[in-house]
């Protein structure tokens, strides 16, 4: 019998959805309100951490395998680098040039608005996925190691 | 005076990392040093009566495209906050690395005591 | 203004308890108390981004530390290292502290921002022109991902390397590889 009692399991399976939703909100409104990709990524990792504490490690491994998490982290890092490099081609020949804002959004009268930041929003999504997937991976590895050593004794 | 208290916190962390024998205590000393350095960097940019560096709609004039003078004269320094924000997440990653080294050492030697580990070498 | 002194003294007391207690579990819990004190301090220093990030990171750090220490340290390790080295290091730390206090007296007073005294400081430019140059209303976000995005790229690299290093150290086959040197 893995995990905790049924009360904890039911409530944590409801709360997990709310935590993921709050993390996504924090990531996508990072250019208007406090926080951004870093804190949102830690929120995404902590939702799976809650699931792991309540249900045990096997359920989490079935829901999000570590190989998939590593692939998500690699693709997020690649996306961040690709956003940086694409500033070289679409603009003033500068690394990290914010070409979406400078070309179409500057002076359009939508200054403090949801879509008004250009590549900053995309880069924040990449950073959030990177941080979340990496922290999830290291917590899973720590718990796996503990299970192995206690089983061998 | 708050700078001196912050430096005292840094010195406590340094004492813990240098003197203690337990490996987890050394990791804890490094964590205390990280907290002290982050606090000191953010305290350098503080103003009495300042506001957070986030612009809302009332403080921006879209006609002349300028931020209100009240925001420019009262905002705290955004640059140390940006540097500290990356530093906090890096400290979590390095904490995981140090803890994994501690666990691996415990599995090999059976103790957290670094003087014992030194004797068992070879 | 007194809230800063109160919080700093609270953090120093938590650090002293975390350093000097014998039980590792209570030491870890005192570290998380120190982190929550730091988070409140960031909130009163008008840095809400760092406050939220600090409080979430502290929860994760608490769980990582408890995972590592619980049911492992059955023998209490007490005492310090050799007596002579301890005394010498404490004396050196005390001398560094006195010198540091003398240095901090030359800084401007707490509450007067340093960047406000310098004409044409970089932070003045960020505050004045950050919204129209980058489009982000949060100046910290515009500094992280537009003005100084190289820093964030390096941060992503360092985080990736640290986590991959932890994964390699913790993998299951490492013990087997150590036992077979001719592999």
Structure description:
The complex is a heterotrimer of chains A (153), B (122) and C (183). Chain A has 153 residues and is mostly helical. Chain A is 75% helix and 0% strand. Chain A has 6 helices and no strands. The radius of gyration of chain A is 19 Å and the shape is elongated. By secondary structure, chain B is mostly helical. Chain B has 5 helices and 2 strands; from the N terminus they run H-H-E-E-H-H-H. A two-stranded antiparallel ribbon of chain B has the order 1-2. In chain B, a hairpin with a 4-residue loop joins strand 1 and strand 2. In chain B, helix 1 packs antiparallel against helix 2 and helix 2 runs antiparallel to helix 4. The radius of gyration of chain B is 22 Å and the shape is elongated. The model of chain B has no long low-confidence stretch (mean pLDDT 85). With 183 residues, chain C is mostly helical. Chain C has 8 helices and no strands. Chain C has a domain of 74 residues. The model of chain C has no long low-confidence stretch (mean pLDDT 83). Helices cover 73% and strands 0% of the residues of chain C. Classes of the chains: A mainly alpha (153), B mainly alpha (122), C mainly alpha (183). Chains in contact: A-B, A-C, B-C.
**What is the CATH architecture descriptor of chain B?**
Orthogonal Bundle
Global geometry of chain B: elongated
Gyration radius of chain C, in Å:
22 Å
Helicity level of chain B, as a percent range?
A: 55-70%
Secondary structural class of chain B: mainly alpha
Shape of chain C: extended
Main interface by residue count: B-C, 83 and 88 residues
Count of alpha and pi helical runs of chain C: 8
Proportion of strand residues of chain B: under 5%
- Topology as H/E string of chain C? HHHHHHHH
Mean pLDDT of chain C: 83
CATH topology descriptor of chain B? Helix Hairpins
Give the SSE layout:
The complex is a heterotrimer of chains A (153), B (122) and C (183).
Chain A: H1 6-28, H2 37-55, H3 57-63, H4 66-89, H5 99-105, H6 119-152
Helix pairs in contact in A: 1-2, 2-3, 2-6, 4-6
Chain B: H1 2-19, H2 23-43, E1 60-61, E2 66-67, H3 69-74, H4 78-109, H5 114-119
Antiparallel strand pairs in B: 1-2
Chain C: H1 2-20, H2 24-44, H3 48-69, H4 83-104, H5 122-134, H6 139-147, H7 149-169, H8 174-179
Helix pairs in contact in C: 1-2, 2-3, 5-6, 6-7
């Amino acid at each position: 019998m893995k995990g905790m009692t049924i009360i904890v399991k039911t409530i944590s399976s409801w709360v997990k959805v709310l935590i993921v939703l709050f993390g996504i909100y924090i990531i996508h409104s990072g250019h208007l309100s406090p926080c951004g990709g870093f804190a949102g990524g830690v929120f995404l990792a902590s939702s799976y951490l809650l699931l792991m504490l309540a249900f045990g490690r096997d359920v989490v491994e079935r829901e999000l395998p570590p190989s998939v998490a590593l692939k998500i982290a690699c693709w997020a890092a690649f996306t961040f680098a690709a956003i940086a490099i694409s500033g070289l081609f679409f603009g003033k020949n500068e690394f990290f040039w914010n070409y979406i804002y400078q070309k179409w959004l500057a002076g359009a009268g939508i200054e403090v608005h949801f879509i008004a930041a250009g590549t900053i929003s995309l880069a924040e999504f990449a950073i959030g996925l990177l941080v979340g997937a990496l922290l999830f991976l290291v917590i899973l590895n720590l718990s796996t190691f503990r299970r192995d050593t206690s089983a061998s004794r | 005076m708050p700078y001196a208290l912050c430096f005292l916190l840094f010195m406590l962390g340094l004492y813990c990392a240098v003197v203690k024998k337990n490996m987890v205590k050394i990791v804890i000393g490094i964590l205390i040093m990280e907290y002290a350095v982050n606090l000191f960097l953010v305290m350098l940019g503080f103003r009495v009566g300042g506001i957070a560096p986030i612009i809302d709609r009332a403080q921006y004039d879209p006609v002349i495209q300028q931020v209100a003078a009240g925001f420019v004269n009262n905002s705290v320094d955004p640059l140390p906050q940006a540097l500290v924000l990356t530093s906090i997440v890096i400290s979590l990653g390095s904490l995981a690395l140090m803890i994994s080294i501690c666990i691996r050492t415990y599995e090999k030697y059976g103790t957290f005591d670094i003087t014992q580990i030194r004797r068992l070498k070879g | 203004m007194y809230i800063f002194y109160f919080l700093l003294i609270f953090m120093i007391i938590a650090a002293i308890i975390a350093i000097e207690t014998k039980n590792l579990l209570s030491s870890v819990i005192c570290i998380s108390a120190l982190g929550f004190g730091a988070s409140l301090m960031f909130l009163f220093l008008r840095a809400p981004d760092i406050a939220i990030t600090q409080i979430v990171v502290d929860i994760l750090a608490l769980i990582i530390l408890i995972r590592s220490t619980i049911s492992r340290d059955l023998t209490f390790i007490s005492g310090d290292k050799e007596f002579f080295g301890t005394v010498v290091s404490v004396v050196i730390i005390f001398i560094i502290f006195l010198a540091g206090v003398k240095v901090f007296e030359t800084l401007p007073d707490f509450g007067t921002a340093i960047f406000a005294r310098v004409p044409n400081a970089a932070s003045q430019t960020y505050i004045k022109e950050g919204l129209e140059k980058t489009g982000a209303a949060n100046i910290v976000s515009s500094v992280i991902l537009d003005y100084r995005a190289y820093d964030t790229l390096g941060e992503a690299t360092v985080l990736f390397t640290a986590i991959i290093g932890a994964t390699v150290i913790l993998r299951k086959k490492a013990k087997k590889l150590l036992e077979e040197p001719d592999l």
